[in-house]
Amino acid sequence: MYNNILTSQEDGITKITINRPSKLNALNKETIQELHAAFRVADLDAATKAIIVTGSGEKAFVAGADISEFADFSVSEGGKLAEKGQELLFDFVANLSTPVIAAVNGFALGGGLELAMAAHFRIASDNAKMGLPEVSLGVIPGYGGTQRLPQLVGKGRAMEMIMTAGMIDANQAMQYGLVNHVTTQEELLPLAEKLAGKIMRNSSVAIAAAIKSVNAAFEDGVNGFKVEIEQFGNCFGTEDFKEGTTAFLEKRKADFPGK
Ligand code: COA
Asked: Which domain of life is it from (predicted)?
């Protein structure tokens, strides 16, 4: 069904694997379109409670946007490339209702790090290397990197990473707060699944409301506290809320209908 990605769904988790290992999983146009479709399908699938995105092979998560595709672009084509990519993939992922965990299994450079940063949080294997090398190519990050990196690591660190075009390793990424956990290559997906499992025990409608509220803090002209109040209020009208509070008072585990 897809040429550049693999998808699977098991025990409430959809796994999306970028699968162009010979090009270090670089994001060409087709891969971005396929990722859009796969994330959309997973988000609409009632049985999917969490999404894990990772790269195939042992070397790379994603080594960036596919440089061979845009090397001869004009100013307007460049602008459109960034706009379309942000709309189809990076903003799309960041705003999904279903939690997305990026399991960074190697190089996450340029668009690769931008994809990982669009996910709701990140974990990494100890061989991971992360950076935004765009200025070494005479361009800047165009898939949200100049915005999301400072949000995650602070302005000074982001400025240094972007201006030097250098890479940081998994431990430094952890110190920076760019990834939440570092583990071995073998344990990376099991850890992602374990974290997804913890998430899935909770109310999916409440999680969707939480994602909206947290994201509101980073939206221009939006009062995040107001969004939180509205989303908080909405929760009181859900079946999950009735079940969660009733189960607590009855001293049993909640069995959320997800509505
Ligand atoms: N776009 C297109 N092709 C890419 C790519 C990218 N972003 N990153 C890697 N590839 C391709 C290489 O061209 C090579 O293809 P080939 O075998 O047909 O020549 C293949 O993937 C393997 O990469 P290679 O460079 O040989 O691996 P390496 O281990 O020597 O180096 C990297 C690994 C990640 C350091 C290096 O590939 C690199 O710097 N990639 C570009 C990173 C980048 O600038 N990304 C931001 C893009 S905006």
From this structure: Bacteria
Does the residue 43 lie in any domain?
yes
The number of folded domains in the chain is: 2
Q: Report pLDDT digits (tens) over 175-228.
A: 999 999 999 999 999 999 999 999 999 999 999 999 999 999 999 899 999 999
Give, in order, the Cα–Cα distances in Å from 18 to each of 46, 54, 124, 132. 23, 6, 16, 19
Whether ligand 1 lies within 6 angstroms of the CB of 108 is answered as no
186 is catalytic: no
pTM of the model: 0.98
What residue owns the CA closest to ligand 1's atom 21?
Answer: 23
- For residue 124, give both structure tokens: 């990494």
Same domain, yes or no, for 147 and 33? Answer: yes
Residues 224, 182 share a domain:
no
Q: Residue 175 contacts by C-beta under 8 Å, 6 or more apart in sequence? A: none
Q: Could you tell me if 255 and 243 are in contact, meaning their C-beta atoms sit under 8 angstroms apart? A: yes
| Active-site residue, 239 included | no
Q: Which domain holds residue 233?
A: 204-249
